[in-house]
Specification:
With 342 residues, the chain is an alpha/beta fold. It is built from 9 helices and 17 strands. The strands form 4 sheets. Strands 7-11-6-1-4-5-12 form a 7-stranded parallel beta sheet, sandwiched between helices. α3 crosses α4. The model has no long low-confidence stretch (mean pLDDT 91).
Length: 342
């Protein structure tokens, strides 16, 4: 069988397409595999996987494990986790990544608990580096730094896993950049026999009907986002942000505090526990700038902060700061934009 100690990415697959988050992880995985001098591998499990490697190989993937069977789609917990557990026991990857999606959140903990490997969820950065255990003094080289906000976002924690393998992490969609390595990249494709990696009892759950509703909110695709935080003050004031968004052809986003207050729906939440966005223009209204929120929008091209607190943390990353009450500033923005866009 294949050599061991490589880096592997679990690729989610829906409607004939590999999920964006998986391609983002392959991009990051290729960088880290280069640093470690190991191969980048991918595993894709499902049905109708013909030519799926054409979507995966350009990201610099050296080996793809394909497991194809009509019973493996749509996703169910038992067979997918059995395949990964048994495959990982066989190929012994040093690092394994998957998306922090509903599938990854279900699959990751099952695999890591069975392999006693540990798992860091919702990482915002992944790096390779050395580590010295402060208690034993033992030194390790080339560990995976699993970086994420912790303690309510007050610190950024770097988590390492010196002994257990694989070092596993999940990452949300949009956190990493997606960049193909080479459209002509060639790698090995290995078809695995589903019966070798699963047992008949893995298939006791059968999906009779499945309905997936696509989100009506397209924050990721919007070039302009008007986002509100707790400082917006009320649900009514969010209507004001909606007016500004309508004027600019933008989407409305929100911080977690505004969502928790019930002023706006969760599907508009931006940040570590929401979506990650990279718009051309990000207008932050009444957002203080907790580290989790910053993690979800810091790559915006231009950031405008509207805040009555001149010392709000978000002002340090903003390109333009307007100090004042949102209720005063936003109507003026609407008025002047309408006036100048005629």
């Amino acid at each position: 069988m294949a050599d061991t100690n490589n880096l592997i990415v679990y690729c989610e697959y829906e409607d004939g397409k590999i999920a964006d988050v998986s391609l983002e992880l392959l991009t990051k995985g290729r960088q880290l595999a280069d640093q470690l001098g190991v191969k980048l591998e991918a595993v894709v499990i499902g049905d109708k996987l013909k030519d799926i490697e054409k979507q995966i190989l350009p990201y610099g993937v050296d080996r793809i494990y394909k497991v194809e069977d009509a019973r493996l789609y749509p996703y169910t917990s038992l067979p997918h986790s059995s395949i990964l557990i048994n495959l990982f026991r066989e190929i012994k990857p040093q690092i394994a990544f998957m998306g922090a999606t509903s599938i990854g959140r279900d699959l990751g903990p099952r695999v890591s608990s069975c392999l006693h490997s540990g798992l860091t969820a919702d990482c915002t950065a992944l790096e390779i580096g050395p580590h010295t255990d402060p208690k034993t003094g033992e030194s390790y080289e080339n560990l995976l730094y699993q970086i994420r906000p912790a303690f309510g976002g007050n610190i950024v924690a770097t988590i390492v896993n010196p002994e257990c393998r694989p070092q596993m992490a999940t990452v949300r969609e949009g956190v990493m950049k997606k960049e193909a390595r080479d459209s002509n990249y060639t790698g090995e494709v290995i078809d695995l026999d589903v019966n070798k990696y699963t047992s008949p009892t893995d298939f006791v759950v059968e999906i009779i009907d499945r309905h997936v509703e696509k989100s009506k909110v397209n924050l990721k695709g919007s070039p302009i986002i008007v986002a509100g935080g707790y400082g917006v003050g009320s649900k009514e004031n969010f209507d004001l942000l909606q007016q500004l968004a309508d004027t600019l052809g933008a989407e409305v986003g929100a911080s977690r505090a505004a969502v928790d207050a019930g002023w706006v729906d969760h599907d508009r939440q931006i940040g570590q526990t929401g979506v990650t966005v990279r718009p051309k223009l990000y207008i932050a209204c009444g957002i203080s700038g907790q580290i989790q929120h910053i993690a979800g929008m810091q790559d915006s091209s231009i950031i405008i902060s509207i805040n009555n607190d001149p010392n709000a943390p978000i002002n340090t990353i903003a390109d333009y700061v307007i100090t004042g009450k949102m209720e005063d500033v936003v109507p003026k923005l609407i008025k002047y934009y309408k006036k100048n866009s005629k």
